[in-house]
Write a structure and sequence with these properties.
The protein has 366 residues and is mostly helical. Helix content is 62%, strand content 1%. The protein has a two-stranded antiparallel sheet with strand order 1-2. A hairpin with a 5-residue loop joins β1 and β2.
Length: 366
């Protein structure tokens, strides 16, 4: 007698269909664990499990009466869910680039078209201003290119001035100017021969060394050897001149620094001495500091101390106002008029009106 299929799994499946909170998984597991004909190995088991899954999915997605179709929702990346159109990564990149270009676009007041709604007079004035700006920009560009070209040559100010003079003379019809251009050209050729370390036909270095010329004349050395010796001597002269100039510049810088340090030390020593002896030192110092800074910029540091002393001596600081003492009234005797008292001093000295006037007066008296 064939085995009977129990009805319990069917009842269980009906209950599960109404319970969507995990009942389907339990029913599916029970069926798949059954080793019988209705278990995982049988066709009936597969169909029941599939039916359970399909039924639950259908119940979840079933539309109720009156439900509206779901609208496409755009996520943060610009992509749409549902039935809406989906934005691809390429479209998103293109859209963001277009938005950025639009945001970065700047107004070009020179090259943008003029609004035709403006009056003709206004349009003409704008065109005139735009033309002026373009001409100025072109002139500045030419000037900047010229300056850059000059700087790229590495020429010193003296060399540039000499070159300008050579061009002026070589393009002149004046014989004196042409002679000056020729001498400038000879000097350039001589310098070039020395730097290159080889003789140049236009330059006669042997003429500057008679002993070498005589040695060549009497066959003691060859002309080529004599020229090499002459070039070596000239190169040694150039090197010596360059070293001398560099040493002079270094020495001048060191001497200037030493002079400045000595002047600062002297001023500090003088200030410390005056601060101990003069109660009004700080007030006077504050008054003369500004004018002295301008004066120190135009004189050598060795003159700073004398200038400070002169300005300090001319500085006048108002004394603090004190309360006038109470003086009893004096009754003059009969027949004697009251005479006003004269202030002490002769009254001939006039105080300077400003500290700058005091400093200038002191400097004039030095």
């Amino acid at each position: 007698m064939p085995p009977q299929i129990e009805e319990e799994p069917i009842v269980e499946s009906v209950v599960v269909a109404a319970d969507e909170d995990g009942a389907a998984e339990r029913a599916k597991a029970a069926i798949e664990s059954d080793p019988g004909p209705g278990g995982a190995g049988g066709e009936a088991a597969k169909s029941i499990a599939d039916a359970l899954d399909e039924g639950l999915e259908a119940s979840k997605t079933a539309k109720k009466p009156g439900d509206k179709p779901a609208e496409a929702v755009e996520d943060k990346d610009g992509k749409k869910d549902g039935d809406g159109k989906t934005e691809t990564d390429e479209e998103k990149t293109a859209r963001e680039k277009a938005e950025k270009d639009e945001a970065d676009k700047k107004i070009d007041h020179v090259n943008d078209p003029i609004d035709e709604r403006l009056s003709e007079r206004t349009q003409e004035r704008i065109k005139s201003l735009v033309g002026f700006v373009k001409e100025r920009d072109e002139a500045l560009t030419v000037q900047g290119n010229l300056i850059n070209s000059i700087q790229e040559t590495g020429a010193s100010p003296e060399q540039f001035a000499e070159t300008i003079g050579f061009l002026r003379n070589v393009n002149s019809d004046d014989p004196a100017a042409l002679e000056a251009a020729y001498k400038t050209l000879q000097g350039g050729m001589r310098s070039l021969a020395i730097r290159m370390g080889k003789p140049v036909p236009e330059v006669d270095l042997l003429g500057e060394y008679p002993e070498l010329a005589n040695a060549v004349k009497f066959g003691q050395i060859t002309k080529e050897h004599a020229q090499e010796l002459a070039i070596a001597r000239e190169q040694a002269k150039v090197a010596t001149t360059q070293r001398t100039r560099a040493n002079d510049a270094t020495r001048t810088t060191q001497e200037a620094a030493a002079e400045k340090d000595a002047a600062i030390t002297s001023l500090n020593t003088l200030g410390a001495s005056l601060a101990k002896s003069d109660p009004q030192y700080q007030a006077k110092f504050d008054l003369i500091t500004g004018p002295l800074k301008a004066a120190f910029a135009n004189i050598r540091p060795s003159q700073w101390e004398a200038t400070f002393k002169a300005a300090y001596a001319a500085a006048v600081v108002a004394a603090p106002v004190k309360a006038a003492p109470v003086v009893p009234a004096v009754v003059p005797k009969k027949g004697q008029p009251i005479r006003p008292q004269q202030p002490a001093g002769d009254g001939t000295k006039t105080a300077p009106k400003s500290m700058l006037e005091a400093v200038n007066s002191a400097l004039d008296g030095m």
